[in-house]
Amino acid sequence: MDIEQFRKAGYQAIDNICDHFYNLQNLPVRPDVEPGFLAKSLPDAPPEKGEDFQLIADDYHKVILPGMTYWPHPSFFGYFPTACTFEAILGDLYASSVPNPGFNWAASPAATELEMVVMDWLAKLFHLSPDFLNSSGIGGGALQTTASDSALIAVVAARSKYQKNHPDIPIEKMIVYVTSQTHSLGAKAALVLGVQVRTLEATTEDDFGLRGATLAAALKEDIDMGLHPFVLVGTVGTTSSGAVDNITEIVQTLKSVDRDVWLHIDAAWAGIALSCPEYHDWAHLKAINEYAHSFCTNLHKWGLTNFDASTLWVRNRRWLNDALDVTPEFLRTAQGDAGTAIDYRNWHLALGRKFRSLKVWFVLRAYGTEGFQKMVRRHVNLNEKFIDLVKSSNLLTLVATPSLSLSVFRLDPVDTTSGERRSRSATADALNTLNVQLHKRLSSRSDVWLTQTSLNGTFCVRLAIGSTNTEEKHIDHVFKLICEESEATLKAEKWLKD
Amino acid sequence: MDIEQFRKAGYQAIDNICDHFYNLQNLPVRPDVEPGFLAKSLPDAPPEKGEDFQLIADDYHKVILPGMTYWPHPSFFGYFPTACTFEAILGDLYASSVPNPGFNWAASPAATELEMVVMDWLAKLFHLSPDFLNSSGIGGGALQTTASDSALIAVVAARSKYQKNHPDIPIEKMIVYVTSQTHSLGAKAALVLGVQVRTLEATTEDDFGLRGATLAAALKEDIDMGLHPFVLVGTVGTTSSGAVDNITEIVQTLKSVDRDVWLHIDAAWAGIALSCPEYHDWAHLKAINEYAHSFCTNLHKWGLTNFDASTLWVRNRRWLNDALDVTPEFLRTAQGDAGTAIDYRNWHLALGRKFRSLKVWFVLRAYGTEGFQKMVRRHVNLNEKFIDLVKSSNLLTLVATPSLSLSVFRLDPVDTTSGERRSRSATADALNTLNVQLHKRLSSRSDVWLTQTSLNGTFCVRLAIGSTNTEEKHIDHVFKLICEESEATLKAEKWLKD
After folding, report:
1. In this structure, which of A113, A244, B273, B305 has its CB flanked by the most CB atoms within 10 Å?
2. CA–CA distance, A260 with B471 (Å, rounded to integer)
3. CA dist list (Å): B280 to A52, A284, B232, B248, B371
């Protein structure tokens, strides 16, 4: 394809994308297909000779696009929705045209420096301590692919730091702390590194957030047994229910035991809300800023920036360099040798890295602080509408305190005779089975998407709001559907006969 | 930005990218800037209110673009050049418009299935064993971000497999094998996992490739000491000189000792040449297909696909699932539970992953097998031209056998009196110093880029050809510049007085 053919195909791509977004809310959220649908319809080997691009682009629209799940759909309420903005798409488009692996400053000076700048802008947007700024010269931040990567990097750095300070401790004695509500990224980091993991309880009474006393008891127990907890993954806004660990108590506890335990804060989803001062106390920002060794939030979840754009800040960049720097001759540069530039290859697991800062810069400038705040508050307001609907319902109850734009609920109908919720009389298992059936019904629909979770044994359904296109009418619509499917579930499961 | 504003900004982006590529060869390869140049010219915080996109796009062209190193420049000969094709840019553009984190089949069925399909197409393009095909139901392949990621995943899976088969072996007794020529990805994987690494010698006499006897001796020594080598990272096409480990001998050795050692093949750069049958023996493809546990090549290096697009195949997908599967309730799906679909989250370190298969599909269809072969052969031919020029030169000599499109050379002038190369009379240190100076001079130029390496103590300069825009005239030009800078170096270092 030559430059003029690219111009033509590029215009067409832009037009097609416009059409897609005009049409998006009329499409199903997810396709009605079975595993294997696509492989069957494609040849089993690449063509011998190249094909005309028009044919390929047409096939994309005919064969691939209808098989996608549309995460930016206004009725997508599953997992946490992914961000999607035109500014980020344009940022990625421009970045694609200047490909470079960005592993050191020289590989593309502007790519490294723009990343340094936008990470500082973001730290300020989220009101993080100046300790985390790249301009501090000590701490700093880098873009990563996902929160799992960020957590893995934090755990690797924590292990390296701990082993440096305690060279005689065998890895078998070292433990990663997570909670029963920590995202699987905590367990996966431990699995990847082959270290023990201890899951601390986050109780229903504490609204699924870790308390200081639970941590203190575990630390005492493990230390008494000769074990070495070296990192705790604390969460602001868990995936299951948006719970927040009591970071204030956690920091008090960690300070009082003084055992060199790294505190990583995973705020993959909820961190974006730190752009709004009214959530600072809720998120324990003061304690994070005082003590946390590392902090992560994902711009590609709630931060208006298309996947991938995870952020990781550390209070001391040396911890990353100590843990991750391998420099053969072919990777040396004058600037790296002189220490005058950040070589981001030492701030992550791989070597090459994308020019992701461009889309972040586009988004930060196009939306400004006000744009982030407005978006967060709009989604929280939409969730408040949903919460009001649930609270007024005879069918549904909330299972956990709603968190920002996330609600967790279940079917727990009021008994028409007694006027009491059925959870008073039914067994936990029976109610779980009922809700599994409700979720199955909801999952079989292609016009909305909600995912499930289990909160300390209680099966429930999540409603996560995050699409820029979601409006009040979509909340009304999904609530109506949930009620219809609830009624149908009660009938099918013969609960209505009682 | 609304849809019509996006259309306008999108057309403009396409036009600007066209302008950039029309102008590319007139631009310097790399910018003449010092660390800190960009941060100084940007505000130190994001704007309070959003800005007009035209202003942002203009600033990109004024401030950011001139600070980039242009890897697709025809005179970029450093590291390994990164691939850049319009088809891949378009693939990424379309993929950006359907953002999804792709961690399981349901997250976007077409994204998972297209990845399964293109990985099989690629396996066939590179003539890998059918064992590695997704359609085998046993082995399979997935797109990863980089070769470092691929190697780290392979090492994690190898460790998991070894520990499963040998549950009593402590991690302190386990060793990763790399060679003195393995990319830093081997050492970095070991560093990340906190396991020992042993560097096997790849001698100058063996053209920097590992031999079976060296491996056999190391295995015997380590096994006798009670250590457990569990993975060897073998390389087809090292970064320093494009060397190839003698995989045939390595496989013979591993089979004869029968110690459950995982063989990972890192063919990050050279693997693309497997599209041409004439390189199969050179790359020891038969031995790879017979024995290797995992194989990686990077489409974003020589494979016509923009960063990132690394590939990783394994002979048994269970090894990945065993090593990397963590499934909390909120990640369960009907298809995952039923085992009818691949959940790619268990095939890499993170959870979320990009929809990278689209650009790969675009590229494979637009170029076909012929397009890959033509591109590889064209670059190899250009390198042959360069080799001829070096061989006819009184200034330069080759340090290693040239490999595909990579040559490694140094300044080693013929003494006009004796008619012999100066390396016969000068010390190794003196000649190294001379070449460090030559490379410094070359590095201070902005019209070409070549990077350096050290081959068992011999400092040398690399010329790696890989841009789709590089033509004969650029080879002539870079050779002329190298000769000029060589003459200048000899004068400045007072070698010409002798």
Report:
1. B305
2. 57
3. 30, 59, 21, 12, 18
Which amino acid is located at B425 in the chain?
Answer: S
CATH number at residue A45: 1.20.1340.10
Choose among B1, B130, B101: nearest CA to A239. B101
pTM (2 d.p.): 0.97
User: Domain check: are A110 and A61 in the same one?
Assistant: no
Is residue B185 located within the same domain as residue B286?
A: yes
- pLDDT value of residue A444: 94
- Name the one residue in this structure whose structure tokens are 């994987």: B189
Q: In this predicted structure, what is the pLDDT of residue A364? A: 98
Per-residue pLDDT reduced to its tens digit, A80-103: 999 999 999 999 999 999 999 999
Same domain, B56 and B113: no
Q: How confident is the model at residue A498 (pLDDT cuts 50, 70, 90)?
A: very low
Pick the last residue of a domain from B13, B42, B67.
B67
Q: How many domains does chain A have?
A: 3
User: Within a domain: residue B364?
Assistant: no
User: Minimal Cα–Cα distance from B102 to chain A, Å?
Assistant: 10
Please list, in sequence order, all residues whose beta carbon lies within 8 angstroms of the beta carbon of residue A16, skipping any fewer than 6 positions away: A57, A61, B94
> What does the block give as tokens for A331?
């990777």
Instruction: Report whether pLDDT(A223) > 60.
Output: yes
Residue in B238, B351, B461 to test binding to A, most A beta-carbons within 10 Å:
B351
Domain boundary among B67, B88, B123: B67
Phi and psi torsions of B297, nearest 5°? -140, 155
- Domain of residue A9: give its range: 3-67
Distant-in-sequence, close-in-space partners of A142: CB < 8 Å, separation ≥ 6: A115, A119, A311, A312, A344, A347, A348
Question: Amino acid letter at A197?
Answer: V
Nearest by CB to residue A187, choosing from B121, B135, B326, is: B326
CA distances from B486 to B170, B383, B421, B440, B494 (A): 53, 20, 14, 11, 12
ipTM field: 0.97
The alpha carbon of residue A253 is apart from the nearest alpha carbon of chain B, in Å, by: 28
Is B471 strand, coil or helix?
A: coil
Shortest Cα–Cα distance, B240 to chain A (Å): 7
B387 lies in the same domain as B341? no
pLDDT single digits (tens) A390-449: 999 999 999 999 999 999 999 999 998 899 999 888 999 999 999 999 999 999 999 999
Q: Is residue B367 part of a domain?
A: no
Interface test with chain B among A84, A100, A178, A442, by most B beta carbons within 10 Å? A100
Is the pLDDT score of A151 beyond 60?
A: yes
DSSP state of B451: -
Which among A278, A297, A305 is positioned nearest to A366, based on CA atoms?
A305
- The CATH number for B462's domain is 3.90.1150.10
**Does residue A345 sit within a domain?**
yes
Handedness of CA B468, B474, B476, B481 (dihedral sign): negative
pLDDT recorded at residue B497: 60
Which chain B residues are Cβ-neighbours of A462 within 8 angstroms? 330
**% residues pLDDT > 70 (chain A):** 100
Residues B462, B327 share a domain: no
Kindly state whether residues B189 and B329 are assigned to the same domain. yes
Residue B139 lies in a domain: yes
CB–CB contact A329 B452 (8 Å): yes
Mutate to test the interface with A, among B22, B233, B330 (most CBs of A within 10 A): B330
- Give the pLDDT confidence of B65-119 residue by residue, as tens digits: 999 999 999 999 999 999 999 999 999 999 999 999 999 999 999 999 999 999 9
CA dihedral of residues B489, B495, B496, B497 (deg, nearest 10)? 140
From CA A362, how far away is CA B179, in angstroms rounded? Answer: 43
Is the pLDDT assigned to residue A120 strictly greater than 60? yes
Residues B380 and B319 in one domain: no
